[in-house]
Specification:
A hairpin with a 7-residue loop joins β3 and β4. The protein is an alpha/beta fold and about 500 residues long. The chain has two domains: about 160 residues, Leucine Aminopeptidase, subunit E, domain 1, CATH 3.40.220; about 325 residues, Aminopeptidase (3-Layer(aba) Sandwich). The protein is built from 17 helices and 17 strands. It has an eight-stranded mixed sheet, sandwiched between helices. α11 crosses α16. The structure holds zinc ion (ZN). Zinc ion binds next to loops.
């Protein structure tokens, strides 16, 4: 795992050649507290009008490597400003320093005392690595050190570098899994990647590879996998990862991750150019694996986490499942298939049922499903993660606490309500079935298109029979940069939101 590791540096010295540049991020030149740096930026700003308002490289003897990169955040005090101003400024600086040939920059972030910006330096560090990240296939076919040239980042702010490096290791796993093509990260290889990323750590990884076992134990999941059963390299996997920290357990989390390694839509085939980018339909699985990697590296006390990924390719072929089929879920619920492109909820339901079985003795267990589930989430809340919680989670303020953590870590979410209409929407129309998986229009043009699938998940998994807190996490709008599922860099959402809430 090569990324630019954070290293604490108490003060900088322009002649220390450990570092070959200094990146300064601040709202304005006046906000730069270091006299030498402020003077260098001010004098450059007098001869170059761009410096006050955009990211620039200033050549100065005052900086290590003679390179001072000043990246202004712009205004921070309006109610709608948030820490992503620092993320964006760091992103601009990263593109510039890589072009300039910098490999080991110092980073100094000036954030005012506003609580919103309490993690600004940490966010800037993570943004640098997010921006510098290159896809796994690129690193495997080219020279990794050449295409990801940054080696380390000297943190002049007082931050916990051990924590940050664990966080970045987790985000990197999430980006790697989400951002890979459907052959390189087909289900068996996704399982291999998780085993390798967590090998030798305190996270236990178990993989179910037997198609017969999946057929009997995960019947809904396997209905999605049916058309890939004859293609060994596309065969489904269920990957279970368990971490139990030392000490008294204060949080017990169960995370179900949607790992659809390619979504053709199945028999309800995606058309009109909507198929490109569907290798990213494993972003939820990617995030839960990334969170487990962070746990493996951090080994926090007082928390237990079980994450399970349903890794399945939604292929099309003569064995493909079709609409109108009635398939009994692991929980014994008869599901009428409404549309084969609504496959993620089928994969997640059986995984959630298995997690409920594992959680039987955990009174305070909190459940999450993490998925690129609906175009509606992206339509409704744009680039934010959409959270939909059940009654118990709501009574514990779970989603709002998650969202508050996400706000601090530049991994923001919006909270939606689960309503009676959502349950009505999936109710059975005949006695032949207990529930309908989906309507037959794109979620983006369906009212409550990201809320009603949560009702399906609750009923099909049998979660409604258990007194547990449950929050559904839809990352269809937040999983890749700019909402560009074909080309956008994976964001690793919601790894930092979860980390901010439970590991900070
Ligand atoms: Zn689909």
């Amino acid at each position: 795992m090569a990324f630019a590791k954070a290293v604490n540096v108490s003060q900088f010295n322009s002649s220390d050649n450990t570092w070959d540049a200094i990146v300064v991020i601040a709202a304005s030149i006046d906000a730069i507290e270091d006299d030498t740096l402020r003077a260098a930026v001010s004098s450059a700003a007098q001869v170059d009008g761009r410096i006050a308002s955009s990211c620039n490289l200033i050549i100065t003897e005052a900086a290590p490597g003679k390179r001072l990169i000043y990246s202004p955040t712009g205004a921070l005090t309006r109610y709608f400003d948030d820490v992503r101003r620092f993320h964006d400024a760091a992103q601009h600086a990263t593109n510039l320093i890589i072009d300039a040939g910098v490999v080991s920059p110092l980073l100094m972030v000036y954030a005012d005392s506003d609580e919103r910006y309490s993690k600004a330096a940490e966010v800037a560090f993570l943004a640098i690595n997010q921006t510098a990240w290159q896809p796994l296939e690129a690193r495997e076919s080219l020279v990794e050190d050449e295409i990801e040239p940054l080696t380390q980042i000297g943190m002049l702010n007082d931050v916990d570098c051990h924590w940050l490096n664990a966080a970045e290791a987790g985000c990197r796993v999430a980006r790697d899994i989400c951002g890979t093509n459907p052959e390189r990260m087909a289900p068996p290889l996704l399982a291999d990647y998780c085993v390798e990323a967590l090998s030798g750590s305190s996270v236990k990884v178990e993989v179910v590879s037997s198609q017969e076992q999946l057929k009997s134990e995960y019947p809904l999941l396997f209905s999605v996998a049916r058309a890939s059963e004859q293609v060994a390299r596309h065969n489904a996997r269920v990957i279970t990862m368990t971490y139990e920290g030392k000490g008294e357990i204060k949080h017990t989390l169960y995370l179900a991750g949607k790992g659809v390694t390619f979504d053709t839509g199945g028999a309800d085939l995606k058309t009109d150019g909507h198929m490109a980018g569907m290798s990213r339909d494993k972003g939820g699985a990617a995030a839960v694996a990334g969170f487990m990697k962070m746990l493996a590296d951090l080994q926090p006390e007082g928390i237990k986490v079980v994450a399970e990924i349903g890794a399945v390719r939604n292929s099309i072929g003569s064995e493909a499942f079709v609409s109108d089929e009635i398939i009994t879920s692991r929980a014994g619920v008869r599901v009428r298939i409404g549309n084969t492109d609504a496959e993620g909820r089928l994969v997640l339901s059986d995984v959630m049922t298995h997690l409920l079985e594992l959680a039987e003795n955990d009174a305070n267990a909190e459940f999450f499903s993490v998925a690129t589930l609906t175009g509606h989430a992206a339509r409704a809340v744009g680039p934010y993660t959409a959270l939909v919680e059940n009654g118990k989670a709501r009574s514990q303020n779970s989603a709002h606490m998650l969202s508050a953590a996400g706000d601090l870590w530049a991994d923001p979410a919006e909270v939606s309500r689960s309503r009676r209409e959502d349950f009505d929407f999936v109710k059975p129309r005949t006695k032949a079935d207990d529930i309908l998986s989906s309507n037959n229009a794109a979620s983006a043009v369906t009212a409550r298109g990201h809320q009603f699938p949560m009702a399906f998940l609750v009923l099909a998994s049998g979660l409604d029979k258990h007194d547990v807190a449950y929050t559904h996490v839809d990352i269809a709008g937040s999983g890749v940069e700019s909402g560009d599922w074909q080309h956008g860099k994976p964001t690793a959402a919601p790894v930092m939101m979860l980390a901010g809430r439970y590991l900070n």
